[in-house]
């Protein structure tokens, strides 16, 4: 099996991923609705949530990036226009943010959350598919099995204390060897398709609308033959 952990299939296919209902800390606002697929070093989780209703959170207890699969979430911070997050859109809620979270009907979203001791910049940051892309470094040359791709990213959120970053990334096609993944990474594919290879020769295919998580150190390869875009969260865990 590959090291990629599936969180959602856009076509509604059943997942073999084992989820368990659990809160992320004692003050988790989604404690009753959260299903965790992975929890590891650095106090990070990858999860899915089904939510209906409205809650007022005086101080969000962790930092969480969410990508809506169905329905619409409204996130309201005092003094700012409400942020409406619909399908295939996302947002980052920073630790310490006072926010009202509303869903008039059933909303499902995938998320990646991390604990941290202090808020670096409370607030809600949207993730956009039409991001303000800038050139970014391709994978290291020694890991590539062909020409280097042209990669771009728009990192819209950074929390230094937990080494947590979130944004949008895209790339031209490329292929990479199976090697230890250098960081924890959540990804929700916006466009294109990827074949993730395992050291045993297994392959997991993912396409637009699918969401997955790869833990730091997990052996995994990458193969894409078209333009790929994704929302991402990354976190480097100190050894």
By CATH reckoning, the class of the largest domain would read Mainly Beta
Strand content is over 45%
The CATH superfamily of the largest domain bears the name Jelly Rolls
**Unreliable residue runs:** none
Which architecture name of the largest domain does CATH use?
Sandwich
How would a crystallographer describe the biggest sheet? 9 strands, antiparallel
What is the CA–CA distance across the termini? Answer: 25 Å
Radius of gyration: 17 Å
Number of structural domains: 2
Shape: globular
What name does the CATH topology of the largest domain carry?
A: Jelly Rolls
Count of discrete alpha- or pi-helical segments spanning 4 or more residues: 0
User: Helix/strand/pairing class, anyone?
Assistant: mainly beta
What share of residues is helical? under 10%
InterPro entries: RmlC-like_jellyroll (IPR014710), RmlC_Cupin_sf (IPR011051), UGlyAH_Cupin_dom (IPR008579)
Organism: Pelomonas parva
Pfam families: Cupin_3
Protein name: Cupin domain-containing protein
In short:
The chain is mainly β and 239 residues long.
Question: What report would you give on this structure?
Answer:
Helices cover 0% and strands 54% of the residues. Strands 2, 3, 4, 5, 6, 7, 8, 9 and 10 form a nine-stranded antiparallel beta sheet that branches. Strands 1-18-15-20-13-12-11 form a seven-stranded antiparallel beta sheet, with no helix packed on it. The protein folds into two domains: 16-127, Jelly Rolls, CATH 2.60.120.10; 134-235, Jelly Rolls. It is built from no helices and 20 strands. With 239 residues, it is mostly beta strands. The mean pLDDT is 95.
């Amino acid at each position: 099996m590959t090291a990629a952990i599936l969180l959602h299939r856009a076509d509604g296919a059943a997942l073999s991923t084992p989820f368990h209902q659990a809160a992320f800390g004692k003050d988790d606002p989604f404690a009753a609705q959260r299903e965790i697929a992975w929890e590891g070093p650095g106090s990070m989780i990858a999860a899915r949530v089904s939510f209906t209703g409205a809650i007022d959170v005086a101080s969000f207890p962790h930092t969480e990036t969410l990508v809506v699969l169905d329905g619409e979430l409204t996130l309201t911070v005092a003094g700012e226009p409400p942020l409406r997050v619909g399908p295939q859109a996302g947002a980052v809620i920073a630790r310490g943010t006072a926010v009202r979270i509303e869903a008039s009907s059933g909303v499902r979203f995938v998320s990646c959350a991390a604990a941290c001791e202090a808020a670096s910049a409370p607030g809600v940051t949207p993730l956009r598919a039409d991001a303000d892309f800038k050139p970014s470094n391709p994978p290291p040359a020694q890991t590539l099995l062909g020409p280097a791709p042209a990669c771009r990213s728009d990192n819209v959120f950074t929390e230094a204390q937990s080494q947590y970053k979130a944004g949008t990334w895209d790339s031209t096609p490329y292929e990479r060897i199976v090697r230890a993944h250098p960081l924890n990474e959540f990804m929700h594919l916006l466009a294109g398709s990827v074949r993730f290879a395992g050291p045993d020769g297994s392959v997991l295919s993912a396409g637009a609308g699918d969401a997955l998580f790869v833990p730091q150190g997990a052996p995994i390869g990458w193969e894409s033959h078209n333009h790929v875009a994704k929302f991402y969260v990354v976190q480097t865990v100190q050894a």
